[in-house]
Amino acid sequence: MNTTPAPRHNRRLLVVIILLVMASFGCTSVGRLIVAPTPTPTPTPPATLRPTNTATPTSTITPTPSFTPSPIVTATPTAPPLTPTPTASIAPAPRARATRGGVNVRSGPGILFTRIGVLQQGQVYDIVGANPEGTWWKLCCIDGGREGWVRADLIEISGPLDQVPVFTINTPTPRPTPTATPIPPTPTPVPAFYRGIGPIFMPTNNSWVTVWGKVYGGVGEGYPIAGYRLQIRRKGGGIAATSEPSRPVFEWSAPEGDEYGNRVQYNVKLELFNPGINTWELYLIDAAGRIQSPIIEFTTSPDNPNKEIHVGFLARQ
Question: What does the pLDDT read at residue 31?
């Protein structure tokens, strides 16, 4: 019986052979390394620098501000501007200045009223009233606060007159002179004017009567007085003609020169047409129709050429 293990011996032999083969390869490589010549190094070209790309700056994104809600403002109501109240302008008070000295001041608007004082030239007073005809003015304050009336043509007026109150005062009746007769006589009113010029009768070729009247005050040529009328009535009959009111300025009846006819100064004119053969009465009246002058009597006829009459009525003071 064979008990020797053959396989283990074969394994060892195989290992020895492999080692020998490997040793043989190793020696050959070493010899090659020693015998081979040293290679000549090839010069390395200098490195070319490439430009480095510069990074393009990236745009910075600006952050969008977040929306912050604004507080709601409640409007406070504003009061409307105050409109200034217009200040009423005070009109100057009407005033009167005496244009001459020795002007009578009376207790009422007429020469029949009692004289209560006298104005001197240049004195100035407030106008506080007037009569309806505007021929007398009530002044204040005279002789320590008294009010009195002065004729309009004797003073100079300034200021507005539209607010001046108007007073209607009855003319006093003069006291009759006591007599033995139980019935007192009827008093005759004193005229406000007396005859200062004429009458002067002048010839004309006209068939009608023309009266050139001068209503004035003062001395000499005087100054014109407005507001009075000429009136003609048939003697013993009715009124035949009445003029327009006298004007506050004088005029001439004709231009200068003999060829123009009669030339006289006047401020009131009256014409009487178809006078015929009659006797007439001429006089001056106030705005109420009362006679304020002496009565002038004259006659007319076809063969009487004196049909222009010049007469002047001078105011009493």
Answer: 43
